[in-house]
Amino acid sequence: MEIKFTKASQLKEKPDFNKLGFGKYVTDYMFVMDYDHEQGWHDPQIVPYDEFMMDPRCVTLHYGLETFEGMKAYRTADDRIQLFRPEMNAKRMIKSNERLCLAEVPEDMFVEAVKALVAIEKDWVPNLPETSLYIRPVTYASECSIGVHPPKSCRFYVILSPVGCYYPEGVNPVKIYVEEEYVRAVIGGTGFCKCGGNYAASVKAQEKAQKMGYTQVLWLDGVHREYVEEVGTMNVMFKIDGKVVTPPLEGSVLPGITRDSIIHVLKDWGYEVEERRLSIHELMEAARTGRLEEAWGTGTAAVISPIGELNYRGEIVTVSDFKTGELTQKLYDFLTGIQWGKIEDPYGWTVEV
Ligand code: COI
Asked: Are 128 and 14 in contact (CB under 8 A)?
């Protein structure tokens, strides 16, 4: 793919990498490419970061015809820049776009776009512990019409943001509220896609939990309001009686890349991993009887986030004495060790830019 490059007249001053937070800053450039039925994907460009002009009829604004990805670039101690399993993000976006009738971005174009942009912006990859360059690829329907139908034109773009920890708690345990009133997704819907609609449906519950002093919610399935699905914007795992249990990918749960990687690692370490339905009653009973040993969320943004407390219908249980569990910490150290190039990558998951 031939990517046209337009140089910015002036580059931004870099922020203090000690105080990045999450998603506050963007880099100097972005990747943009358009699609229509006649030309297919065309005009790939890296241009100075700027606003988009949008017709008020743009169908994305009305009907949420949008998908996105979350990935990171890491700076290693010897100053190499690496990505983590970028082809997995490309494959997932293809599946999300297919579900929303958006044009599919071929895997090689997706990865090439990300690599080209990160290569130009390599000075923005921070070098402090727990920091990285968050990569946000997005596809949206760019067609302007008020009717609801599969769009005839789309835009794919990639922006970059230097980030620290996603939660203010960092990698310390968070308090989780088990949500029964609102649901995130149902089988047959878009739960397995990374699309804005899933997140739009989630913020009300997040607001409710935060007002009650909780960091995030534990989502239950939309039909029975019984089986555990995800935690906040992450997949979730529980260590019960020495085994790791995680909800299966049946259509309502996001196929997380961190989830997949952790399952792989756990199996290699000899753990039994059960991808199965886990009812909230079974989980609470395991917590009450001391068999729930550890619990954590997995996602690109927060990596691994230990769960220290669960509140279900007012009953509060503490997990691992509100400390980061031994296995949780070991998984965090191992995965981030690979990502930041501190330990050898035995799986070939890292890709140098
Ligand atoms: C991620 O973990 O990368 C996500 O996309 C979650 C998010 C909405 C920040």
From this structure: no
